[in-house]
Amino acid sequence: MKQEKVLTGCACCTMSRRRFLTSGCAACAGAVGAAIMAPKPVFGQGASRPCVRIVYALHAEVQPGPDWPNVGFDFRPVMERINAALSQNCPELDFVTATATGEDQAAAILEGDKNEKVDGYIVYQLNCWNRVAQTIATSGKPVLYADFQFGGSGGFLVYTAAFLRQGAPNLGFVASSDMDDIIAAAKCFAPTIKSGTANDFAALVAKSRVSNTPKPGDLTCKPDMVETLSVDAWKARIAESRILAVLDQEARPADPVMGIAIEYIAFQELNDAWEAADKDEARAIADEWQQNASRIEDVSRETLEQSAAMYLAEKAVLKKHNANAITINCLGGFYGGHIHAYPCLGFHELNNEGLIGACECDIRSTATMVAFTTLTQGRPGYISDPVIDTAKRQIIYAHCVASNKVFGPDGSKNAFEILTHSEDRQGAAVRSILPTEYMTTSLEVSQENKEILFHQAKAVANDPDDRACRTKLCGEPVGDMEKLFTQWDRWGWHRVTFYGDLKAPVFELADALGWKVLEEA
Asked: Of 33, 234, 291, 365, which is most buried by a Cβ count within 10 Å?
């Protein structure tokens, strides 16, 4: 996925799940690298017009391995549509194209363009973590950085926040599902190039982006009374909590986070518990899933039973270690052959029960779940990889694990589907059709900084897009949409979302602990 740990949200890992996955694709991408980065012909052919090169950042034109959007995804029609839309709607510009997998190819493109009339660049982030925009931005020419949503969104958000923090006045950005917004931003090239002041470009694009973002809608929500513990009662519960972290084959203790004890256990222990799981009990759980899911697609009965056995294994190791939370390096374990079923359905069940099942061995997000599930007396947290869409004024929380009891173990249920894990089309994962018209609160905790990251959004829809993770809750953020772009480089991509207006109890808890709350919107 990404080279720096800070980008993953996983405080315990040196390798995030998508970095693990894309490292397997690197050889494939490298084998075709020279071919896919070759410049395409100019489409426009107006010698007197400014020329803008579109650089697509991706692994390969047809995705060779599991990652967002998904294995086998064909980017060629996507690039053709973008090329055609820009050519047809920006007649004042000529365009040339290239693709790059990373920094070396991006540098080669800049070197080649020294002898060409290229006046600016559009970098389209098609896969998440290909570092292309950083190199292109050093050209000093105006650069438009665009997100291909549910494809490049993680890298786009993290890299954009870094650009904003560093100050990159020649780089403007756009994160929109509406091609008209990308076209409007591209129209900022001509006046910038004519003026010869590339450092005005970011401001021009920002003006276009803000003007095309809808005004806030009605943020009135359905009533939702949240019963929270007192701080003293919370502290007592937290002192009894324990997180099991399954990262690799090593068992070891770890420093607590927010007062929550942490213990690493080996893949082998979890896999042994999976092999020992009662087969009749696993079949009965699989029966329940088949009866309760509103849809099951491309998931075999055998896979359901293996997933049920993994749920029983999770319960067994939690009981053995007197823990109430488990987080697993799921894809590292699965692709490494250390575990033989995805933990997603097991996490779904644990979270429905008031326990914690958390993705990717992400300690920070797991601690966030423990802290605020405890505070709200059982409301489950939902780890996600968010996507921002200014066209709809939405943040979309996407992941392949989610509860369907968002108001707690005794609350109402919502519909859920059982599908394959999105990125590789394997195993069993959950699409939860989450309730709308309620206020949600998204959080992350930072032990090292004694901070709680905080924003809120009204749940407004569930996005059915087949790209990227299965569950996609759409929310309208409360506050400043522009500010929501600024913290991803410091906090990583993950957020943990809870149903309920938790602003007052979050601030009260932070005050009692001597922590700060950072409002990211």
From this structure: 365
